[in-house]
Amino acid sequence: MAGPKKNKYDVIIIGGGPAGLSAGIYTARARLSTLLIEKGGIGGQIINSEMVENYPGFTNGIGGIDLTQAMHQQATKFGMETIYDEVTGIKVAGKQKTVTTAQGKFTATAVIIAGGAVRQKLGVPGEAEFTGKGVSYCATCDGAFFRDKTVAVVGGGNAATTEALELTKFAKKVVIIHRRNELRATQIMQERVKSHPKIKISWDTVVLEILGDKAVEKLKLQNVKTKKETLLPVSGVFVSVGSQPATGYLKGVLKLDAVGAIVTDEKLEAGVPGIFATGDIRSGSIRQVVSAAGDGAVAAVNAGKYISE
Amino acid sequence: MSKSEEVTDAKFDEMVLKAKTPVLVDFWAPWCGPCKMIEPIVEALAGEYEGKVSFMRMNVDDSPNTAQQYGVMSIPTLMVFKNGQPVSNIVGFRPKPELSKVLDKALAGG
User: Fold this and answer.
1) What does pLDDT average to over chain A?
2) Do A8-118+243-308 and A121-239 come out as alike in CATH topology?
3) A133 CA: distance to closest CA in chain B (Å)
4) CB within 8 Å: B92 and A131
5) A181-192: pLDDT as tens digits
6) pLDDT at position A3
7) How many CB pairs under 8 A join A and B?
């Protein structure tokens, strides 16, 4: 993890998930000097998926971490540099953009923002206290600790249904707790969870509190229609209630939509010439690896055009 | 060349609890994406703290007992042991500066 070779680049990419890595493959291969700034580790949200089934070209699927590590190697092969640091601000002065991080300052002509989204927490009592003691945000990682136990999954989207199915490999029973009376997941995922003998769905239900002594023992639930409260004994609870675009440092710099995602045009330019947004951080993103990778390519090509203008 | 040593349930007492220096144990499993994500960061720390802190990796799939004994229910979990006692318990991915702080505190006697 050596420091960057210089402070001035053609392109700075913020975020090392599929969108940023794809952008990096394109810009570095186009011989644009490229710096990737990642605050945590390479991979983005998809690393929580043991198997990505819908990324084109992999008949039997590919592991989320394997896919993104390969993308990173591919971009690095073409000359992209990577530093691990957190971006705190972006300043624009004509064609020059200055990106401030916790540890330094870098300038570039184009900036591609690919910071993705962060998993939302439930925000109920017991959640923080029991994180790692039965509260988990990654079924692939932690499912095996709940062999022959009863677990709950909170949420109703693609991530939640994927987690529920993953957990059936270990748990004796999986209860999906969903605040609506229908799932938001794709039809194929809905069919899989509804027909699975180990999965039960608790409709119109929210978690009020996570209870236990040293580890999770039960959930206090409430039916949102009848207001009736119940206790559900579980050994684990997997939180999968969506994610929030990581745009805190961009308020006042770029136009954000109601949920905080960056608004872009058809070039994926974010209202400021030379600043682009890609992947889950972009308003209207369908939040898939393939679309994130596609966004990365679009932004990279348009960044190249902007630089040579 | 990995700077971390593999430790198993059978060797835990000897390699971790009886160690003279603080030991960071990285509980992981092959199926865990975030464990692979944190691996290069732990490796970098192993280089920086060479001689001061020992770094061990424990595969919870092969060695489930120690994880169970210390209540590990989520991976990656990084635990720092000093004089046979756990002094820090970090669950999930954390950036490198945060992990450095934990190690510095363990070395300072915290």
Assistant:
1) 95
2) yes
3) 6
4) yes
5) 999 999 999 999
6) 61
7) 87
| Residue A12: partners with Cβ closer than 8 Å, 6 or more residues away | A34, A35, A36, A37, A97, A99, A106, A108, A110, A111, A112
Boundaries of every domain in chain A:
8-118+243-308, 121-239
CA distance A63 to A77: 21
With CB atoms and an 8 Å threshold, state whether A48 touches B33: yes
Q: Which residues sit opposite B28 in a β-bridge?
A: B59
Domain A8-118+243-308 has CATH 1.10.10.10: no
d(CA A155, CA A238): 9
CATH superfamily of A121-239: FAD/NAD(P)-binding domain (3.50.50.60)
Of B33, B73, B97, the CB nearest to A65: B33
Tokens for A266?
Answer: 């058809």
**Which chain A residues are Cβ-neighbours of B96 within 8 angstroms?**
1, 84
What is residue B1's predicted lDDT score, i.e. its pLDDT?
Answer: 55
pLDDT tens, position by position, B33-90 = 999 999 989 999 999 999 999 999 999 999 999 999 999 999 999 999 999 999 999 9
In this prediction, residue A116 carries a pLDDT of 96
In this predicted model, what pLDDT tens digit does every residue of A3-42 receive, in sequence order? 677 899 999 999 999 999 999 999 999 999 999 999 989 9
Rounded to two decimals, the pTM is: 0.86
Q: How far is A107 from chain B (nearest CA, A)?
A: 23
- A244 burial type by CB count under 10 A (0-12 exposed, 13-18 middle, 19+ buried): middle
Helix (H) or strand (E) holding B76: none
Q: Which amino acid is at B67?
A: A
Beta-carbon count within 10 A of A136 CB:
30
Residue A141 has pLDDT above 50, yes or no: yes
The closest alpha carbon to A221, from A237, A206, A201, A243, belongs to A206
Q: How far is A216 from chain B (nearest CA, A)?
A: 10
At A1 the pLDDT is: 45
User: Is the interface score ipTM higher than 0.90?
Assistant: no
What is the number of other CB atoms lying within 10 angstroms of the CB of residue A205? Answer: 25
